[in-house]
Amino acid sequence: VTAQAEAASAADVKTGGAAPGAVWHHRHLLDLDVVSWPEIELIMRTTDEMKGILARPIRKVPALNGRRVTTLFYEASTRTRVSFETAARNLSADVVSVSTATSSVTKGESLVDTVRTLEALGAEILVMRHSVSGAPYLAADVFGGHVLNGGDGWHAHPTQALLDLYTMRQHLPGGDLHGRKVAIVGDILHSRVARSNVWSLTAAGADLWLCGPATLLRGMDRWAVAWSGGAIPGRGRFHVTSDVNEALRDADVVMALRIQRERMQGGLLPSLREYATRFGLNAERVALARPEAIVMHPGPMNEGVEIAPDVATSGRAVITEQVTNGVAVRMALLYLLAGSHDPAHSGDAGR
Amino acid sequence: MSLRADSHTGPKVGEKVERFEVEKAWLVDPASGREGPGEIVVSGGLLESVVWLEGKDALGVTDAGVVVAPGFLDLHAHFREPGFEDAETVATGSAAAAHGGYTSVALMPNTEPAVDEPGVLERIRSAARSNGSPVEIFAYGAVSVDRAGEQLSAMGELADAGVLGYSDDGAPVRTSKLLRSALLYAGMLGLPVVDHAEDTAMTAGAEAAEGYVASVMGLAGWPEAAEVNAVSRDLAVFADALRDEPRARLHLTHVSTAAGLDLVRRAKAAGLPVTCDVTPHHMAFTDEWIAGARRWSWKALGADGKPRDPWADGALVAAPYNTALRVNPPLRDPTDAAACLAALLDGTADAVATDHAPHTVVDKEVEFGRAANGISGIETALGVLLALVDAGKLPLARAVAALTSGPAGVAGNWPGAATTPAARSRGLVEGASADLVVFDRADRWLVTEGALRSKGKNSPLLGRELSGRVLLTIAGGRLAYEDPDPDRT
Questions:
Q1: Which residues share a beta bridge with A294?
Q2: Sign of the CA dihedral A144, A148, A154, A155?
Q3: Fewest CB within 10 angstroms: B13, B50, B456, B487, which?
Q4: Does B370 contact A at CB distance below 8 Å?
Q5: Best of B203, B210, B215 to mutate (most A CBs within 10 Å, chain A)
Q6: Interface contact A138-B367, CB threshold 8 A
């Protein structure tokens, strides 16, 4: 650790100097449903600080010096895992990486046993990716430290939604999403990214539209209807539609979601070609959005399916910025969960 | 009330109850349709006297205190033996049943091996004889060999060995063709097919009832249509089979949707001799419990008749994705729960059955979508029904009937079972073998792992208090359960 990095001590990432009241009290971050708007703003401000660190020649601060972060990925995901591990190393944490292909998970060890084992080996912060919705709640139930959800099933991908929000705020005047139209187009039904974005973007006051083929929206309309009366404290309404033109018209933000080949085998889509024709983000469709609209994608992209190559590489695309911001957001969350103070035993039951 | 003079000299479980009296309690006799203040005396294992109190003798005796009712009959339970004895055995299941007020239980055949030939049945019988509990065990045979849905089980031999009926429960009878054969062949034997109505092509990979809660939680949706399809198929095939074999019988177990129950309602109105049961959990719990809500189903319905939003009104009090709530059919929304209750009240549902499905920690302490389906419910069924009674949703006598005369009437509708003990009148009859439960509506008990006699601790009610502590259960004149608290005698 250099003197320069030392100088960028934890004091540098002390946040909330201008914060109106928000104090981080969550032991885990499993979903955004229990994260209030002031807390989201705290995350955004902390991310600003982390962006500052990333802009330095030496991107390393000792905020989590000696803390042990373990990434436990039950699904292959290079980008998310590398992003978390980079974030943890930037904060000087020790990182252990467990992927299920090389662990005793392949020998049938249960999630609970694996988590207990990792804790016994010293894990303090567990970053977890799992294919079954809700799996991180089970881990959090038995783990003595902090659990950070890196994506579970169709349910939640909170760090992705937060980096999406951060990226949108960077590009919108005043960083304000109020009344800004955000269109998310793709496989909404199977998307944890879409679900977490519902919580964050409705909290931000955005005019959120979820769009996809009817087979990939099933059930989401019931959610939208349930919230149409504005019943949820701190969350606004959102829209669900299969009309891609309606979703994109005058949008400020356009986000495409990955379409997976399994959807054809499941009888949910006729073909990728037909999807690309009817729902793919091509230049013509994106032209329906506002001229200054940004184009986003959580990756990995199927270029030519949900997004045309020229759109993905156009000046409107902020897809690589999303990746960079992802590191900063994850640094912010690691810091808030385990670095600023340690509420591990403060009685918050992980919600 | 005096349960007994001295608990130290009283009978042990399995021993004949020589002398036992209850004074000034509330008697419920669904066989005669009578309820009111009364007293009973058990002597030499027989119900020696039943006295209905009137006038000043009855003063102060209400239905809110100690209640005496006939022992309960469960038409649907899993005791896991043989094959899964780490989850439950006939012995532990019987102890759990007695703790729940049940004196008779009909066991589903999805054991390992399945009850598809008399040898397996004999193992269950032997376990029932030797475990010391007087709880009466009935058993269903499988419809198909190994429950695989290909070939009929040894139905005739199973009938000769005394099965109550046939079921491939855990799964539906796989094809319409096999169901028709099974209804005809079982009908010839005077016995029913008990079907678990599910269109499994629609539910592959499903985790929770399709709807708002599943959508928010990212759980694969379990469509209502999957049950409606299957109920519709079953009724159509049954009507067809009945033309060839008038003794054919169909019983639909754990029907859980408003639309499925409505099909049964219409079939009954058209004269089809179909029967069905609903479970306590589908009446009282809803899908929002998976999100962490714990309010009863009737409290989750808004004044407009629509489900309330647990995220909107701060109803989420427990950790989400509790696998004790993973069950097949899935917990549905409050309107379906209300429909189950309405079906019970209007007679569409003939009985309450528990679908008691104990599982080991190994099978439940896993990711929600990978957890075994089932709720350990035979010990909490009474408490859940009493919650409905306490809320004014269900009269006490109807709750008792749903656990006694209701299921007995279902068995009575099966020609080959109508004269067997399964269909015997469940009433408070002087001179008959004593078969009853005594519970105290004013006394609440905490549902804990330790309180449950079942090996299956997979109850969503752990940590919750239920009213109606069971004080004593007598089955066939013998002691089946006695509350262990010495202060209570």
A1: A253
A2: positive
A3: B487
A4: yes
A5: B215
A6: yes
Does the beta carbon of A110 lie under 8 angstroms from any beta carbon of chain B?
A: yes
Instruction: Specify the 3-state DSSP secondary structure of B74.
Output: strand
Assign 3-class secondary structure to A152-189. ECCCECHHHHHHHHHHHHHHCHHHCCCCCEEEEECCCC
Could you give the dihedral angle defined by the CA atoms of residues B474, B475, B477 and B482, in that order, rounded to the nearest 10 degrees? -30
Beta bridge partners of A96: A70
Query: Is there a contact between A133 and B370 if contact means CB atoms under 8 Å apart?
Result: no
Residue type, A70: T
B355 is catalytic: yes
Tell me the pLDDT of chain B averaged across its residues.
96
Nearest to residue A153, comparing CAs of B205, B11, B361?
B205
Determine whether the interchain pair A110/B316 forms a contact, defined as Cβ–Cβ distance below 8 Å. Answer: no
Amino acid at A94: D
Listing DSSP states for B189-221 in one string gives TT-EEEEE---HHHHTT--EETTHHHHHHTPPE
- The interface residues of chain B toward chain A in range 203-242, judged by CB-CB distance below 8 A, are 207, 210-212, 214-221
CB contact under 8 A, A233 and B312: yes
Alpha helices in B285-359 (DSSP H): 288-291, 334-346
pLDDT tops 80 at residue A7:
no
Q: Note the ipTM here.
A: 0.91
Residues 6+ positions from A241 with CB-CB distance below 8 Å? A209, A210, A211, A247
Q: What is the pLDDT of residues B461-479, one digit of tens each?
A: 999 999 999 999 999 999 9
